[in-house]
Design goal:
The protein has 557 residues and is α/β, with parallel strands linked by helices. The strands form 4 sheets. The protein has a 10-stranded mixed beta sheet, with helices on both faces.
């Protein structure tokens, strides 16, 4: 009968509507990339962020045909930050971080019995992107775009914070999983802000696994190295789970002005960031010098007292002076000194044994010294240009030295994290405070968490929306916007590690549970679809002139 058939049709339409809509019922906070952990009630971001600025270049010295292997294929020219870890894992022969291989990553030849790279080097450069690298005349890095396969790295979350960004790249997870929103984080119901990570073991326990963890679990004898001017950034790309791994960290201690090396044997100082060490570093010549390319062009570097004097070739302006007593300048040159110390250890020190074995090694170098320079100088300043020219010469030279150490059997990635974007400004914060006033959380200062802002938890949703609108109006004149974020989930940095790692003798993991649930509900949905399709075929009355059943439609005609 018509009523019955119409009811069945309506039921089918409802079922299909639910199934289709469920595909789009994704939290706006996840889809927009804003973490759902305790990320603040109001988040300040750029109104129009620079697109296509962050880039990654891939170099396969061990196979020499990576460019050819992907050059003829129709593959996307973009790669998400969450896909970088899977790409590295795929190339070096360990399990992809996300459990699947994205289309871009599949185009890269993976490790095989006949082709296994002996090392992978990831060099991430903070505050350098396609835009300002061209402005600063970083010609070597610009040439990599023409010489090697490259992808635009798309942002996956806001606000843009280097610590959070590096953790996303190394883990392949959004901040809603790895829990690091920035250099400061606030757990739910917490009254104080805390440092997101330090170089000690206790702090790194809270992290999810990185691609370095996956590599260490796949190859027992692999060397894992993390390096940066910042201990926190070096830890973000380092081992977080495997205590037995051959893991080493190189970073600069800004308080003692020393280069530190951390390993399972403890922490030791390996160089002083002073005039004598820098003078020895810049005086190196030939293949052993990281500055060979820079000096070969005719530029000069000398040390006079605590000053590092740089004269760029072809410029008639006065020489640029870096002061080792200045924190930013000391971190910039200290990072170069840490890189030089790493090569010394690999060539003739305690790490030299790893360059001759068959286990693939991993080097994650997060160069943040240039970011420190830009924190005190404009992009167009002579000091910034001089520092950029040094960095432009050091990066390809370091890649060449790694390739030589591993007998042309290495793969590399150069990741430009993006041109500097300024969110912090005294006038911006002043305007925000004037708008929020007493609505700010009484135990959390804006200065410690900006660009995330925490308000009193007693505010209703409508009150928060109205407050966010007023803040947006006040910051829009600076090219910024205010995003209103409600708190949804568990504490960010205090989430149980059992959700990401096996902690008992059971063989059931979180991934198994997720896969089971997906298979169960998809199977259930298919059964409903089949029943919904068969039911009208069984009970349709084709003699009444209805064409509800295609099976009987032909006979009726």
């Amino acid at each position: 009968s018509y009523p019955k058939i119409n009811m069945i049709r309506a039921s089918i339409a409802i079922i299909f509507s639910i199934l289709i809509s469920s595909c789009y019922m994704i939290s706006d906070d996840i889809e927009a990339g804003v973490s759902t952990v305790r990320g603040g009630d109001i988040v300040i971001t750029h109104a129009q962020p620079i697109k296509g600025d962050a880039m990654i270049f891939t170099i396969d010295n061990s196979q020499q045909d990576l460019t050819k292997s992907i050059g003829d294929q129709d593959i996307p020219s973009e790669m998400k930050e969450t896909e970088v870890a899977s790409m590295i894992s795929h190339i070096i022969g360990s399990t992809p971080m996300s459990g699947y291989v994205p289309k871009q990553v599949k185009s890269f030849p993976s490790s095989t019995v006949l082709h296994k790279p002996l090392a992978n080097v990831l060099i991430s450069i903070a505050d350098v992107g396609q835009v300002n690298s061209a402005q600063l005349g970083m010609s070597r890095i610009q040439n990599m775009r023409q010489q090697y396969p490259n992808y635009v790295v798309t942002s996956t979350f806001e606000p843009r914070n280097l610590m959070s960004q590096i953790t996303t790249i190394s883990t392949g997870e959004l901040p809603s999983v790895h829990g690091v929103m920035g250099s400061k984080w606030i757990a739910s119901k917490s009254s104080t802000s805390k440092s997101s990570v330090s170089h000690n073991k206790q702090a790194s326990d809270a992290f999810v696994p990185t691609y370095a963890d996956v590599l260490a679990n796949s190859f027992d004898q692999s060397l894992i190295v993390g390096l940066s001017a910042s201990a926190q950034l070096a830890a973000a790309t380092h081992i977080h789970e495997n205590d037995e791994a051959n893991a080493h960290m190189f970073f600069v201690d800004s308080e003692t002005k020393t280069v530190q090396q951390s390993s399972s044997n403890g922490l030791k100082s390996i160089a002083d960031v002073d005039s004598d060490s820098i003078a020895q570093f810049v005086s190196k010549t030939g293949p052993q010098s990281l500055l060979e390319n820079f000096l070969h062009e005719g530029s000069t570097i000398s040390v006079v007292g605590s000053k590092v004097v740089v004269q760029l070739f072809g410029t008639k302006s006065e020489a640029v002076e870096f002061d080792l007593n200045n924190k930013a300048d000391a971190l910039f040159f200290g990072e170069l000194l840490a890189l030089d110390s790493l090569f010394t250890e690999l060539k003739s020190g305690s790490l030299s044994q790893f360059t001759s074995d068959s286990s693939p090694d991993s080097f994650s170098l997060t160069l943040s010294g240039f970011k420190e320079i830009l924190s005190e100088n404009s992009v167009s300043s002579r000091k910034a240009i001089a520092a950029a020219q040094i960095l432009d010469a050091v990066v390809p030279k370091a890649l060449g030295m790694f390739n030589q150490l591993y007998h042309s059997e290495s793969t590399s990635e150069v990741l430009l994290l993006g041109s500097p974007t300024k969110l912090s400004d005294a006038d911006v914060k002043k305007d925000i405070v004037s708008e929020i006033d007493t609505r700010v959380h009484k135990n959390i200062e804006i200065e410690s968490t900006y660009p995330t802002i925490y308000v009193e938890e007693s505010l209703s949703h409508d009150e928060l929306q109205a407050l966010c609108s007023r803040v947006h109006n006040s910051v829009s004149k600076y090219g910024l916007k205010a995003n209103c974020i409600r708190e949804f989930t568990q504490p960010a940095f205090l989430q149980q590690k059992t959700s990401i790692k096996q902690t008992s003798n059971s063989t059931t993991t979180a991934e198994n549970v997720i896969a089971f649930q997906i298979n169960l509900w998809i199977s259930f949905a298919f059964v409903l679809i089949i029943l919904a399709a068969v039911y009208p075929l069984m009970y349709s009355d084709f003699t009444s002139g209805t064409f509800s059943s295609f099976l009987f439609a032909k006979k009726y005609v």
